[in-house]
Amino acid sequence: MKVLLVDDEIDFVTTLSNRLGLRGIETDVVHDGQEALDYVKDQEPDVIVLDLKMPGMYGMEVLRRLSKTNPDIQVVILTGHGTDRDEEEAQRLKAFDYLRKPTDIDKLADRIRGAYRFKLEKTMAAAAFAEAGEFDMAKDIAKDAERLKTAGEIFKDEDKDKT
């Protein structure tokens, strides 16, 4: 699993990366929205944990661009400055989850794992339809995560049941 953390608070994101590493989740770190988009061009992560309030490019703009260019990347918003309106917009743009700082590290780790499982399920479903000769369905699944959003909600519910 390839995870990218995007946050301009260097001490926070460094500590977060270390704490996730202790839970078996290795991460790369960048400190602003443009760095995140540049990173994605070179090496597409499976999951991005994205802050909203950053200098330069606001995290919601990063999510907006990723939803168009890299819809398979699962994004977990982690913000201390987001609003209910931001949360609604993130859901509309198909972010996997929206968490507010401070959040429990184990909860975040579970959400990252859930986002990764969701991506794998989506990929496996598309491959199964392609293998069966259902190429139109495979394309639809590959393009539109909304059909499998129910699976993502199940993963979130499973994660909640663990707590």
Molecular structure report:
The protein is α/β, with parallel strands linked by helices and 163 residues long. The protein has a single domain, classed as Rossmann fold. 57% of the residues lie in helices and 13% in strands. The chain contains seven helices and five strands. It has helices at 10-22, 33-42, 59-69, 84-92, 105-131, 135-143, 149-162; strands at residues 3-6, 27-30, 47-50, 74-79, 97-100. It has a five-stranded parallel β-sheet with strand order 2-1-3-4-5, sandwiched between helices. α2 packs parallel to α3 (59-69), α5 packs antiparallel against α6 and α5 runs antiparallel to α7. The longest helix has 27 residues, at 105-131. It is globular. The protein starts with a strand and ends with a helix. Residues 145-156 have low confidence and may be disordered.
What integer value in Å does the Rg equal? 15 Å
User: Termini separation (Å)?
Assistant: 23 Å
Instruction: Tally the helices.
Output: 7
CATH class: Alpha Beta
**What is the N-to-C order of secondary-structure elements (H for helix, E for strand)?**
EHEHEHEHEHHH
Contiguous runs where pLDDT drops below 50 for at least 5 residues: 145-156
Helix content: 55-70%
Largest sheet: 5 strands, parallel
Q: Write the CATH architecture name.
A: 3-Layer(aba) Sandwich
Overall pLDDT confidence: 86
Which assembly state applies to the chains in this document? single chain
Structural class: alpha/beta
Major sheet: arrangement of strands? 2-1-3-4-5
Q: What is the global morphology?
A: globular
Q: Would you tell me which CATH topology applies?
A: Rossmann fold
Strand elements, count: 5
- CATH homologous superfamily - what is it? Response regulator
Instruction: Give the DSSP E fraction (strand runs of 2 or more residues).
Output: 5-15%
Count of structural domains: 1
